[in-house]
Amino acid sequence: MTQHRRSAGLKVVGALAVPTIAALALSGCSTSASSTSSSGGSQEFSLSFATSNNIESPFQTLAEDYMKSHSNVKITFNPQPNDSYDQTLRTQLQAGNASDVVVTTPGSGQGRSILPLAQAGFLEPLDDAAKKLVPSGSDALFGADSKVYGQAMEITVVGLVANETAAKASGITDFPADFAALEKQCKNLQSSGKSLFALAGAAAPNTGLMAMSLAASRVYAGDPDWNAKRTANQVTFAGSDGWKSALDAVKKLNDAGCFQQGAAGAGFDAITQGLASGTSVAGFIPAPSWKQLKTAAAGSEFDVRALPAEQASDKAYTFASANYAFSINAASKNKDAAKAFLDWAAEPEQTKAFAEIDGALPVSGLDSYDFNGSAYKNVADLIKGGKYGPLPNSQWPNSSVYDALATGVQGLITGQKTTDQVLQAMDAAWGQ
C-alpha cells in the first residue's frame, strides 16, 4: 500500500475495532487529575480506554513508557469494559468528570466516535502533530472546519483471527475459499465437537462486527461508496441485495453449526477460551488480537485472514483503518500535560512501538513492511492492492444504526428476528 504525503506530513488510514478477551470490572466514574503547570514540576493527567482483556492495554503500556522517560509525569489510568465504555464515557463527559485523555474512534457510528463528541463540545481541537496522522481522504472522520479532534495510532485490519495450529490439527489444510466450502467445514468440525468460529453472541460489538465482515465482499467490494449513497438516500439497507445476503449468511452460519455450543449467550471470554484451547479455529475480531491470543496459547500460531466471499470468483475485500484515536477532554484542567503526551505519542518511534505492542500494522512504512514474516501474510495482497476500506459504521450517522445491526444479529441467531426486520430497523435508526 502506498503511503501518501501532503505538505502537512505523512497520512495514514482510519476507523474502529473491538478488543476481545475477558472483561475487567467497571471501576466507577473517573475523575480528572488535579490541575498542574506544564512548565516544570510535577505534571499529572488521567487516561481512559476500553479494555476487554486481562492483558495490559497497549494504551497503558505506551503511557507507562512515557512516564519512564518523563519522570515528572504521573498518569492515572481509568480502564473501562469495552461493552459499557461508550455509555460510561459519554456519561462522564456530560458530568464533567471524564479523564483528561480519552480513547475515541474516528467517524460517527459509535458512542465513542469523534464527530458526535466533538459536535457536543466534549473534545479539544488538536495540533499539527495530530493533523499529520489524519488518514488521507478521511479528514471528515476526524473533525470539521480544518480542526481535528483525534490522533490515530495504528492500522487495524478487521476480519478473522485464526489459530493455524488448531486448524491443522483439525484437518484443515487449506482455509475455505468460498462460502459453500466454509459451511461444509463447519459441519465437519461440529461432528468432532469443535467449531470453525468462536462467537460472543451476547456481546453486541462482536455480533455487529461479524455482520459487517460478511458485508465486506457482498456490499463494499463492489461498491466502496455504498455508505455515501445511503447518506444521499440513493440506497437503503432493506433494499440492498448485498446487505440481505450478509444477514442471510449469519443464519446460514448458525444452521451449519459454525459457532460453538451456547454461542448466543456467550461473552468475549468464549472467544479467548475457544481460540486459545483450539476448540474453535477462528473469531470475528480485530487483527491485533492475534498477539494476545498467542500469549494465552503458548505454542499455537495465529494469523489474520479475510472472510471468504460468497463465491471464490467474487471480489475479495477486508476492512483496515486506524483503530482508535487519542482525544483530549475539552473540560480537562490538564490540557498542557495531555497535549505534551499526544505530541510525544505522534512521533514515528512511538507510533511504530505502539503497533508492535498491540500487534497491529504501523501507520507508516507499509511499503517496506515484511508481510511474509508476519501474522498478516494472508491479507498482504488485499492491503498492498488497496482492496480494503474503513469499517462501515465509522461513516454511519449515529450509533443507533450499529446498535440495530448488532442486536438484530443476536435476534437472527436466536430466531427472534428476520433479515428484513433487522434491515428495516437499521434504516429507521439512520434517520434518528
Automatic annotation (TrEMBL):
<dbReference type="InterPro" id="IPR006059">
    <property type="entry name" value="SBP"/>
</dbReference>
<protein>
    <submittedName>
        <fullName>Raffinose/stachyose/melibiose transport system substrate-binding protein</fullName>
    </submittedName>
</protein>
<dbReference type="InterPro" id="IPR050490">
    <property type="entry name" value="Bact_solute-bd_prot1"/>
</dbReference>
<keyword id="KW-0449">Lipoprotein</keyword>
<feature type="signal peptide">
    <location>
        <begin position="1"/>
        <end position="25"/>
    </location>
</feature>
<keyword id="KW-0472">Membrane</keyword>
<keyword id="KW-0564">Palmitate</keyword>
<keyword id="KW-1003">Cell membrane</keyword>
<dbReference type="Pfam" id="PF01547">
    <property type="entry name" value="SBP_bac_1"/>
</dbReference>
<keyword id="KW-0732">Signal</keyword>
